Amino acid sequence: MTNLEDALVAVDAGADAVGFVFHEKSPRCVTVETAREIVGKLPESIEKVGVFVGGNSEGVAETIRQCGLTIAQIYPRKSQALNEFFRNFPFRVIPAISVGLIGQDEVVGFHLASSEREKVVAALIDSGNSERPGGTGEKFDWQRAAGLADQIGLKLVLAGGLKVENVGDAIEILKPWGVDVASGVEAQPRKKDPEKVRAFGRAVREADKSA
Question: Which residues have CB under 8 Å from 31's CB, separation 6+?
Fold first, then answer.
């Protein structure tokens, strides 16, 4: 989210959470001040998620505090150990996995100690790679990720190229705990299309009923 109007439309459409990107290379990057202003006008029941690429745990935690966010979504750098990042991290976390980093027998770079799993809400899988970890707006082969939730022992949030026309198929194939959409409901970069947002919400609810 980059503005209050879009965030309120998402809430009205039934979103359980709204996200704020703090990665400078993203076209949807927002400042701490913008995020804090929007968060302050959202219902308390809505999860407010900060999206980060790399960074150190202290800096991420401080941004979460300053903005009044409730969850940190982390795209770890390849060299970054998740267990080290999460150790003593005071907030709930959604670690993100780029589909391009999924190996045949293991999820590259994704190994969480049991002591750190308590703070993990779910794992997000996105259509990225080491160069661009997420936010590509591109769909990936959902069958490739089938069974991933069982493999890593966590609930799954699906992102990457989702839109009204395909989210039902995605839910049917992967049966994720949640879905994450951005470009698929945009009128233009940084601005959502209210009708697409509402239609996406309806499509998710319909698919959820039959999943």
Answer: none
pLDDT tens-digit map of 48-96: 999 999 888 999 999 999 999 999 999 877 545 677 888 889 999 998 8
Total number of domains in the chain:
1
Phi, psi angles (nearest 5°) of residue 197: -60, -45
Name the strand (E) or helix (H) holding 40.
none
- State the residue for tokens 């493999």: 151
CA distance 181 to 19: 10
What gap in Å lies between CA 155 and CA 174, rounded to an integer?
11
Structural tokens at position 76: 């770890």
Per-residue model confidence as pLDDT tens digits over 139-179: 888 887 887 778 788 899 999 999 999 999 999 999 999 99
CATH number at residue 74: 3.20.20.70
